[in-house]
Write a structure and sequence with these properties.
CATH architecture of the largest domain: 3-Layer(aba) Sandwich
Strand order of the largest sheet: 2-10-9-8-5-3-4
Largest sheet: 7 strands, mixed
Shape: globular
CATH topology of the largest domain: Aspartate Aminotransferase, domain 2
Helix content: 40-55%
Number of strands: 15
Order of helices and strands: EHHEHEHEHEEEHEEEHHHHEEHEEEHH
Low-confidence stretches: 392-396
Mean pLDDT: 96
Number of helices: 13
Strand content: 15-25%
Number of domains: 2
Distance between the termini: 43 Å
Length: 396
């Protein structure tokens, strides 16, 4: 039955058949040679999509656990932290740092907009002038709650210039693996992602990469940590183990998923997600939905749109669920006001065209003035245009 459901939320994402099958493999000794080969192979392969030569550690947790690890291993209570928030998950990053005693200054951005490099630089200069220079800058790569992708290259460069000693700590949970990313090239210090997003794997693993500069901060960081202690993770990684019992089945699945991604090729993966994003935006637009994200920074992994005037999310969602389509609603202050279409992981443009067609059916059932067939046609045309352009770019 679940295979007939169109799961189009921003995670967990649908699983390819080989990944599902890998989750049913028999257990192995997590202190034995088979596991050692597995985790070392997976960690090495993750360096390519991270765009890094740095170590990648795997923690048995959700992505939020990885965010917590990114903070507690590198900071001390009282440290100045600039938290750049463009949505719900940016706020969560700031809240974690505050819970552990950091002196957090929030740079909030109107939801639906990306952060601006000048604003980041100005905030860092203000912190230094106030006698509380930033030890770290927290940034979100792709904000799942709004469907906005931050201009991370420009933001990182601005932060580095304004506060050379600050660590750049990035939540890349819902973008990494689906869109281009260069940890080393962009001079990022700590990068976190999660297995249930672009990686086509169930929830259960957070993957975190750290720069040499970030590792140098470990001995002096005084925030409490035990389960998420990266120094312990590194010591165990040297012998092909984890400090605590790992999610062995999820690692089996990630190993298979990485093989599928490598066979496709990351350039093609990025092009596929770009086509899906274009299809979602065009299809919803043709149905009269007003998109939340600014066009210049619209995400290729999740699209958010305002619900039509007078339409309640509960009623609209019921129509969609009855047709087998599972979307996400709004979070925080956007709860009940927007819908979110996830298009990351094991997804093709045809899946998004089908989702748009079901959304159109829901609109017609509620008596909304939409043109029958307009959404699907627009989505398909947009995907075709982007696929053609990307094919030329990849082949060149």
């Amino acid at each position: 039955m679940t295979d007939r459901i169109h799961l189009r939320i921003p995670g967990p994402t649908p699983l390819p058949a080989p990944v599902r099958e890998a989750g049913a493999l028999q257990m192995i000794n997590h202190r034995g040679p088979e596991f050692r080969e597995l985790i070392q192979r997976v960690a090495a392969r993750l360096r390519t999509p991270f765009g890094t030569a740095n170590e990648v550690f795997m923690l048995t947790s959700s992505g939020t656990g990885g965010m917590e690890a990114a903070i507690v291993n590198h900071l001390s209570p009282g440290d100045g932290v600039l938290a750049v928030s463009i949505g719900s998950f940016g706020d969560r990053f700031a809240e974690i740092a505050e819970r552990y005693g950091a002196n957090v200054r929030r740079l909030g951005v109107e939801w639906g907009h990306a952060a601006e490099p000048r604003a980041v630089a100005d905030a860092l200069h203000e912190m230094a002038a106030d006698g509380q220079p930033a030890a770290a800058v927290l940034m979100t790569h792709n904000e799942t709650s709004t469907g906005v992708t931050n201009p991370l290259v420009e933001l990182a460069a601005a932060a580095r210039a304004a506060a050379p000693d600050a660590l750049l700590i990035v939540d890349a949970i819902s973008g990494l693996g689906a869109v281009p990313f260069e940890m080393d090239g962009w001079a990022l210090d700590v990068v976190v992602t999660g297995s249930q997003k672009s990686w086509m794997v169930p929830p259960g693993l957070a993957m975190i990469a750290v720069s040499p500069r970030a590792r140098d901060a470990w001995p002096n960081a005084r925030m409490a940590r035990h389960y998420f202690d990266l120094e312990q993770a590194r010591r165990y990684a040297d012998k092909g183990e984890t400090p605590w019992t790992p999610a062995v089945s999820v690692l089996f699945q990630l190993d298979v998923a990485l093989a599928l991604l490598e066979a496709e090729g990351y350039d093609q993966i990025f092009a596929r997600h770009a086509a899906c994003g274009a299809a979602a935006r065009a299809g919803l637009g043709a149905l009269g939905f007003r998109l939340l994200a600014q066009p210049a920074h619209a995400s290729d992994t999740v699209t958010s749109a305002w619900l039509p005037e007078g339409v309640e999310w509960s009623a609209f969602n019921k129509e969609l669920l009855g047709r087998g389509l599972v979307l996400a609603g709004g979070q925080g202050k956007l709860a009940g006001r927007i819908l979110r279409v996830g298009h990351l992981g094991a997804v093709a443009p045809a899946d998004i065209v089908a989702a748009v067609e079901i959304i159109e059916q829901g609109c017609l059932a509620l008596g909304l003035p939409v043109e029958a067939g307009a959404g699907g046609r627009a989505a398909a045309a947009a995907a075709t245009a982007v696929t053609g352009a990307n094919r030329v770019a990849v082949e060149a």
